[in-house]
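hey so i finally got around to running the thing on that chain from the lab meeting. sorry it took forever, my laptop kept dying and i had to restart like 3 times. anyway pasting the input first so we r on the same page abt which one it is
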Amino acid sequence: MSSPVANKPIAVIRTAADRETVLPNSLLQLGVTVNNQGDRDAIVYISVDPRHPQLAQWIAIQEQRLALAPGKSGEVTFQFKVPADTSPGLYEYDLVVDASDYYTDYPAERYSRQQIQVTSPQRSQVEIQDSSFNLDLRTTPSQPKQVQPGEVISLQAIVSNRTERVDRFRLVCEGLPADWKVTITYPTEMRGTGLIQEAESLGLNPGDISRVPILIQSPAQELAGIYVPTFRLYSENQENYRVSQLFSPDDIHSEIILLDLLYLQVQPIYLLQGQINAIAPEVNPDSAKFEVQLANLGNSSRQVKLKIRNQDRTENCRYQLVKEEVALPPKSVTAIELLGKPQHWWKRPWFGPGQVFNFQVELEDAQQLAAVQPNQLPAYLTWKARPWWQLLLAILLALGMVGSLAGLIWWLFLRPPVVPKVLSFAAEDSRYAALNNDVAQVGWEIENPDRIKVLKITGYSPEGEVISGPLTYELEGKQLPAALEANCVVQEKLLTCRNIETDARRPGQYLFELALIPKHRQEAIVQQSKTVVIAPKPVSTVKALTVPKALYRELGSLPAALAQSAPPPVPANGLLVSWQVENPEDIKELKLIGRDAKGVSIGELRYPLSAEGNELQLPETLQKYCKVNKILVCTNVPTGVIQVGEYRFELQVVSRQTNVALTDKPVQTDPIQIQPLPFYVANFQINGQPAAAHYRIPLLPNQPAPKVFLGWQVRGGQTTKVELLPSPGQVPTQGMLELPINQQYGTSVVTLQVSDRTGQSTTRSVTFETYNPAPTDPTVAAANAAKQTAVAVNASNAALLKAMQAQTLQTQAAMQAQAKQSALPPPPPPGSTRPSGSSNAPTLAPGSSQSPSASPNEANPRFQ
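ok and heres what got predicted. didnt touch it at all, straight out
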């Protein structure tokens, strides 16, 4: 059982514990109560996430949801049906409570590793409770015992024999690697006088409790991680146990009485070393080769990043690692090849010992664990001097360059410049449509394209803002850029391009500008196109939102006379809503929101729509009620609202373009009202008979009052309220109770009042009058009493008692017959609680002065 957290908007209470024990072929129910403590309406999703694949077959519904207003709570129930052939063991699942769509600051709350323990069906409940076994070291998957490699862990197993028989137990540890050492030491036993023998099991008398010391030691080089040993306890008193092979591992037929788990986490040891080896430190013929060697001597995997840093001022040498990040398992060694290649061949030394390049390899742990030792590995490579024949070739080349330089000066400074010229530039079309995913395209004709250095295309808005591009194309080479090759042709110094796509996709107006930057630093040549329009996509709008009827009544049966004048009953699947939405291809999601008479949301229904190609796909919940053409038409979509009240429904459309709902002018239905069922009084009885308006009750002095039983039966809806006045107040719609009779003479009134939420009400009243049937003068009564003899008094009393007993039997038979015909239970016999020595029994009869029929105010109400 968990308690709600005060500072969270969603509070959760679970009826099941973290571990529940069940038997095969049984049913386990998990109840989850959710309370919305926040300040907004929310839909809370509650789901069960099975960790065990077999657990998914036990539960029919894995996800439920609750629509909760602020301050409201709701409850859902998940049922786990455990099959009869389920093996004993632990089955884990996660419970997820998610309201993050409405409380974005609070992620989904997950109750991890909830457990269902299935016990063996062959063991009785008494056997399960008689044995007791547990470890004194308590661990959980989230809080394991921290262990260093090679550390010895000491714990004890507490075993209790609460049966009536002497038993012998043996403790077995499973689930650890073979190189772990587990020592279980049973208490020594006395064998004869003064003889102590080491025990291989634990013997316990009835009611005894003993502790078994356990030592667990991991290897000194054990890998880091979680280890879960399982301790099982076996008993000698099992039915299939063989005495000749006591606790033999090969033939143990006894069942597991108890088991317990221990979670151990071996701590990691970080020890990572690196070095760099020179394989070919001299550049021959064009690169040097090195090897970076890494050794992981720890017990955990490491992820190492390698980075080369140049130690020289110049960046004239390029280094390349085969791998820049490497994973090292525990106790492993790896080597990464490193190549160094000098750049700019003309900077190679002409003579001398050569040029030296210093660099270092920096090592960094990708998981920010312990640093590598060392984390910097320095090295260097040598670029040897050129051979002698290259020096001779350089001299000859220098002489040729002098002549070429003279020609170049004339070409650059004395030759008259040639500039490019834009012959035409325009958009391929003046109008595009975003609905068709159109992209604006342009074309041009340019003379002397070989004189162009850079070509730019920029799109401007009518206000002068850059809303497209700039798209830049460099034309310095002999070939066109790859982006222009498919749509451009060069013929006799004329560049013709057609259907060149821009990045203008958004709806709006564009003015495209073509800018040419010549190679010889002249001013840019600019030319603009005419206005191009990209029409926006049509937005989905709600054209109509209607309901079939504006007035319903609550579900329930009515007499034919009332059903003719009452509104029709609300449909069993809730109020129905119909709508029409234009441009349905833009719909991403429909939200149908219900609101009460005050406008407060009572929840919402979401209908996500998907688009495959040009076809709109409806969700399964709408396929039965909707048709899609140019307009989405949905007829009589059920909402599930059947409670009494007044409602309005609002339809919101989430657009695919903006990904938000259009809520500027929400479309709502007219008010829809569900009225409560008309009520009427089906039965109103006194002592099993239809109640009259007035009763006179004879009450003799010093005699108990007769018993009066009031029964009633009222038909109506959920909001029908029944009261008995002046007491006991509100009562159920059907029942019977005994009315207390005033011991003093006078009158009392009992009223049955029925009302509902609409303010309609009716009453039925009964007046009880108690009186003395034989009033006398006290003086005369005293004189007459002195003259009467004891015999006369006894005879008179006997005759009166006989007459009252006969009348009581007749009244009881009539009340039982009436109770069988009506829905009311028969009252208890009037004489059931009266003492046998009673000499008289007053009768209850309606007053003769009142009419037995009901007054107009007491007639059954009719729904207006």
